[in-house]
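Budget justification aside, the reviewers requested a transparent look at the raw inputs and outputs of the sequence design task funded under Objective 1. We therefore reproduce one unedited record. The lines immediately below are the structure tokens for a 380-residue chain.
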């Protein structure tokens, strides 16, 4: 939001105005280079503030030296997409989310045996995944269920990352997980059950790395976006949202994949949005059609649970799919991206054999910032 100030302000007027701005949770800064004796002040919302421009105008305009509010419609919250604003593009290793680029994230619900982890990592990468998922701190519903390998699992993730050459995302459950996880992984995941865990959001925001934020299973889209705002206002710019299904009344599926909200989020925010068909369906046989729908509705990527021996998965076995099944999903995504004028990003070592009908899939080297910008311009 910009304020246009009255001319010939006294220092006292200016100090009073700036003081009030701060009381309202808005940090003022005078913009340089405006001609004609007019002064413009930019107001940046500080953390946890929900600014109402009309209220601000009445407070500032009546009592202080404000001639008008320019761009009053500009988003107050960092997550909001201003009119004409292009996508935020988030890169994690070789994955690119947003700006017309779609990337695939795949791997086991939880890291279990070393051989199985290396096997699945190689196979999902060969099929087209650019980011490996694998939980080591698991937020299980029952305390008697497998809770993950913890730090031993983290060490395995570090090894598979180096040896297979794939970036890794894993879930953090509490603030103390952040430091050790950032040393090993490329992206932090905050799960559905922790979407409103504000101490965790605040700590993750300070990690200096991308964060995948999953929607709480009963969260509205606004609550979801405000949880993302904790990350953005805390200093993390690379936030990727993930729709993973919300609670419904029908036990035929584990959750209800809320595709309407994915479409809404693509308008309401500039942040990339992933679709998780695995936790939405809760059953292996529905993952492929939901994945197709996720790309079709505008998702910037898919996150899918894949296990080399799905029946043996130590968590979420019912929704685990084989690497072959995942390869079919990757092929669908490639076809759909081609049809929709988007690009499915391929791992660099397999990019030659993975050209999509929408054009060659980029490796990070080939997808320059200029190319991403050009692609966004075509899509908007
Ligand atoms: C997961 O990704 O394994 C997970 C626990 O997902 P969610 O937080 O969406 O339940
Ligand atoms: Mn899971």
């Amino acid at each position: 939001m910009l304020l246009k100030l009255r001319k010939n302000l006294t220092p006292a007027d200016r100090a009073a105005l700036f003081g009030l701005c701060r009381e309202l949770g808005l940090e003022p800064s005078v913009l340089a280079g405006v001609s004609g004796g007019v002064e413009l002040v930019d107001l940046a919302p500080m953390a946890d503030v929900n600014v109402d421009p009309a209220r601000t105008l009445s407070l500032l305009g009546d009592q202080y030296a404000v001639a008008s509010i320019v761009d009053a419609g500009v988003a107050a919250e960092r997550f909001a997409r201003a009119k004409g604003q292009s996508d935020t593009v988030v890169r994690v290793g070789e994955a690119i989310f947003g700006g017309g680029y779609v990337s695939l994230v795949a791997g086991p619900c939880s890291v279990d045996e070393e051989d199985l982890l290396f096997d699945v990592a190689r196979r999902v990468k060969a099929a087209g995944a650019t980011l490996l998922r694998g939980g080591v701190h698991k937020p299980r519903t029952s305390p008697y269920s497998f809770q993950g390998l913890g730090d031993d699992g983290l060490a395995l993730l570090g090894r598979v990352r180096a040896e297979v050459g794939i970036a890794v995302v894993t879930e953090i459950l509490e603030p103390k997980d952040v430091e050790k996880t950032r040393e090993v992984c490329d992206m932090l995941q905050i799960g559905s059950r922790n979407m409103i865990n504000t101490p965790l959001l605040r700590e993750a925001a300070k990690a200096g790395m991308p964060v995948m934020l999953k929607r709480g299973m009963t969260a509205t889209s606004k609550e979801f976006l405000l949880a993302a705002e904790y990350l953005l206002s805390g200093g993390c710019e690379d936030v990727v949202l993930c729709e993973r299904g919300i609670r419904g009344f029908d036990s035929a599926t584990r959750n209800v994949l809320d595709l309407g909200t994915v479409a809404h989020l693509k308008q309401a925010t500039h942040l990339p949005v992933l679709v998780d068909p695995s936790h939405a369906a809760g059953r292996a046989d529905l993952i492929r059609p939901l994945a197709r729908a996720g790309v079709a509705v505008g998702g910037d990527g898919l996150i899918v649970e894949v296990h080399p021996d799905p029946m043996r998965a130590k968590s979420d076995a019912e929704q685990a799919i084989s690497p072959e099944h995942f390869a079919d999903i990757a092929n669908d995504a490639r076809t759909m991206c081609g049809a929709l004028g988007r690009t499915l990003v391929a791992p660099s070592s397999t990019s030659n054999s993975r050209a999509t009908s929408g054009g060659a899939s980029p490796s990070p080297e080939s997808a320059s910032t200029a190319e991403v910008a050009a692609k966004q311009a075509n899509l908007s």
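The chain is about 35% helix and 15% strand. Residues 109, 135, 139, 191-193, 214, 244, 279 surround phosphoenolpyruvate (ligand 1) (CB under 6 Å). Computational costs for records of this kind are itemized in the attached budget.
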